[in-house]
Amino acid sequence: MTGPDLVTVGETMVVLTPADATPLDHADGLAVGVGGAETNVAGYLARLGHHAVWAGRVGDDPFGRLVVRHVAGTGVDVTAVLVDPDAPTGLYAKDPAPGGTRVHYYRAGSAASRLDRTVLDDPRLTGARVLHLSGITAALSGNCRALVEHAVTRRPLAGALVSFDVNHRPGLWPAALAAPVLHRLADRADLVFVGLDEARTLWGVDTPDDVRRLLPGPDTVVVKDAAVAATALPRQGPATVVPAVPVTVVEPVGAGDAFAAGYLAALLRDLDPTSRLRWGHLLAAHALRVTGDTAPVPAAERLAELAALPAERWTTLDLTEETPDART
């Protein structure tokens, strides 16, 4: 029996969003949704045909049941999710504003903050090809930080490639506190995703090459420079640079998760570095065009077709006419 393609660990919460981009303090109603970096990634992978498992923790409450039902609805395997009878499910609220959307978290003492390293002992995770983690989990509590440390150092899922998205959230911990922890965790992973802007904030670096020198440990470091390009820097050999797809941004939340999912989907298909970055850009572009944390997923065949375009056509690609798969 083969293991899952992807295992991911982290918190997923209920999301409250004002209708019509109204500021939170003027909203008459809130839409209820679900969001979490790790399950965003897992959901994309599941909808692209991969066996993706979320090992999380929710409260024994209506919000927890909502979260599990929603994540399962994206095709993610939720059989490893723990239900905590003594702690609530976390939630966050989006506050749209002309200068950008702010996010208010209500997750202190949540069930997910009580996750620990034993979550990775579940036999249902054995044989996983990829274990995907993020810096968000490390910020939730001391035992969550120890969980991530355990995952990247002790490698409890033998044979799994360890993927780590730095994903610094200033609202959870300031850069001065987060910087050394996230550096240590990232440098022990096999594959790292980091935005150039957050690398600059955390570590004072200015270029993808600077990031690579700062993180000598991973096999590959992927540096995302927003609307400019993404660069994959292997430990040995030349870097691969792929320009971003031009897109009109509706909301940036979730684009990084979509990029990681696209890259990992291509990696699981053993595609070349350029294709991996292009799959990442394509899913990120779709995420940027919607208000939710995740976007409809193009068919894998269409992603492969677009990723194979000649370089001159890639830089002028227009996604406005694309009609992704309706599954969300």
Structure description:
The structure is a single chain. The strands form three sheets. Strands 4-1-9-10-11-12-13-14 form an eight-stranded mixed sheet, with helices on both faces. Helix 8 runs antiparallel to helix 9. The mean pLDDT is 92. It is globular. The longest helix has 16 residues, at 273-288. It has eleven helices and 14 strands. Strand 12 (220-225) and strand 13 (229-234) form a beta hairpin. The chain has helices at residues 37-47, 62-73, 135-140, 142-153, 175-187, 196-203, 208-214, 255-268, 273-288, 300-307, 311-314, and strands spanning 6-9, 13-18, 30-35, 52-55, 57-59, 82-84, 91-95, 102-106, 130-134, 161-165, 191-195, 220-225, 229-234, 240-243. The protein has a domain at 1-127 and 154-158: Ribokinase (UDP-N-acetylmuramoyl-L-alanine:D-glutamate ligase), CATH 3.40.1190. The two termini are 29 Å apart. With 328 residues, it is an alpha/beta fold. GO terms for molecular function: kinase activity. Keywords: Kinase, Transferase. This is 2-dehydro-3-deoxygluconokinase. Belongs to the carbohydrate kinase PfkB family. Pfam families: PfkB (PF00294).
Mind summarizing the main beta sheet? 8 strands, mixed
At CATH level 2, the architecture of the domain at 1-127 and 154-158 is: 3-Layer(aba) Sandwich
Q: What's the CATH topology label of the domain at 1-127 and 154-158?
A: UDP-N-acetylmuramoyl-L-alanine:D-glutamate ligase
Order of helices and strands: EEEHEEHEEEEHHEHEHHEEEHHHH
Order of strands in the sheet with most strands: 4-1-9-10-11-12-13-14
Strand content: 15-25%
Total strand segments: 14
Global shape: globular
Low-confidence stretches: none
Average pLDDT, all residues:
92
* CATH class (first level) name of the domain at 1-127 and 154-158: Alpha Beta
Radius of gyration: 19 Å
Fraction of helical residues: 25-40%
Oligomer: single chain
End-to-end gap: 29 Å
Number of helical segments? 11
CATH superfamily grouping of the domain at 1-127 and 154-158? Ribokinase
Domain Carbohydrate kinase PfkB: 5-299
GO molecular function, one term: kinase activity
Keywords: Kinase, Transferase
Protein name: 2-dehydro-3-deoxygluconokinase
